[in-house]
Amino acid sequence: MTNAFSDRLRGYGRLNDEDERLLAAACQNVRTLRAGHHLIREGDRPDPVFVILEGWACRYKLLPDGSRQIMTFMMPGDFCDIHIAVLEAMDHNIVTLTRTKVATLPRAKMQALVEARPTITRAFWWAQLVDTGVLRAWVVSMGRRTAIERVSHLMCELYIRMRDVGLASHNRCEMPLTQLVLADALGLTPVHVNRTVKELRQAGVMDLGRGWLTILRPAEMARIAGFDANYLHQRLAGPGKFAVALAERTATAGRAARGLTPAPQ
Amino acid sequence: MTNAFSDRLRGYGRLNDEDERLLAAACQNVRTLRAGHHLIREGDRPDPVFVILEGWACRYKLLPDGSRQIMTFMMPGDFCDIHIAVLEAMDHNIVTLTRTKVATLPRAKMQALVEARPTITRAFWWAQLVDTGVLRAWVVSMGRRTAIERVSHLMCELYIRMRDVGLASHNRCEMPLTQLVLADALGLTPVHVNRTVKELRQAGVMDLGRGWLTILRPAEMARIAGFDANYLHQRLAGPGKFAVALAERTATAGRAARGLTPAPQ
DNA sequence: CGGAGAATTGACGCGAGTCAAGTAACGTGG
DNA sequence: CCACGTTACTTGACTCGCGTCAATTCTCCG
Fold first, then answer.
1. What is the mean pLDDT of each run of 10 residues along chain A (265 residues)?
2. Which of A73, A145, A155, B123 could covalently link to B9 via disulfide, CB atoms 3.0 to 4.6 Å apart?
């Protein structure tokens, strides 16, 4: 009885069988939603907590001129703020980006979970700190990274997060985000995202298309992005492909700080 | 016995005298630090929770090429994540920007506070949700706002946050941030921040310099920024100057979406 | 097979960065 | 209280990354 919820929290603490059972039991009320369904709208009074079990969603805001900024991608195992209910009105929207399975956790059940299991409580805290870390990393990307660095960094992040919930391996994972969606997340235009993805593809660093991401040269990718996974606070930071990549990155730090090195053809 | 800590939390819940007393008592261990003192460094094991009582600090990250991105400004009443201790290493730095008074709260005291007073617990949750909202608003600014919109939006935010802890009134407050610091927060260069501040000054919208911010035409300022204070979740959203400004903004929404309107003589 | 959304590409413009040279404000010590 | 060094602020000229506009070409699916 495992699901994306416990898959994620397991990475943040030593859950025992009882913890896992309770987490699975908490996800009774599951809905399947099509892409484009709003889970939360700006101005709404906050609903109960929900967890993504399958599929992708995002938080976003609309600006007066009609442009959209995505602030968070939510993937399986991600959930909305636990204490959201104390607020009077939501200040942003959450919409599904693909067909999505969502579990709704009544406030009472949430409360019981937290009071009964300190391990789970700690895992919630941890998850919340990771989410904040991701948000901070986005600020850094938008503020100080070029388009190619931004795209690379986001792909590194999403790959690692997918891997941490068991949805990626061998430098490959599903990535059903359109270039328009990526543009709204990266603060770029779709046209420029396209050009940037093309550049990374031609350099043999990664491939992105038809719903899949493939990282072809992790070390080079991490170097371009200036990617350091520390903000994801992986408790079990084993020597996966990307850890190796980061070690290599250190070794090649002497090279030019930006720009691509030619593909090793 | 009031301080910036209770001043802030009071805005998020109905604290009674006992709550206020406990909060004040929790701030026994106070240090005064000069500008440039690091409260936290990347890689550190997290320390106890701290609260800013006077002065300013910021969270930031350094990039491989040496550039800096500030992710949060911390003003009196702001504190670091309450559950930070569950993490193994900090993923960013926190440094004071001015002479600063900081109170350190031992973990046990924190724990006692939360367990004894549900009102305070709720206020903590609320404060954390506001901090996250601010972070999301920054992502929006960096992603989709021009320089003049970004500067205006940040100044609106900082003014309101200062007012909410009783440190601003009559559209004026202390603002000891240099243009270099602002540039690192806004994802711009100091040169461009200077040009942008000049433009706003010449338009008679605001003045910023010598350590002070003055908002001369709040309605126009809010219009340029596309500022909506909802993400700050002010519980006591009385009709202050800025609420009025926002009402006016709605009334003038028909005008050109961007750009300045001429100063009214 | 056909329509809609997504991806792609080229030409051109502009907002913000870069470089460089000042001027003003501030803090410190004599 | 002034001299002086340091830091912050300004300004102009030029460059460039990314946006804009517009036209195709894919891809997916019903």
1. 88 91 91 96 94 98 96 98 94 97 92 91 96 98 98 98 95 97 98 98 97 97 97 76 48 41 42
2. B123
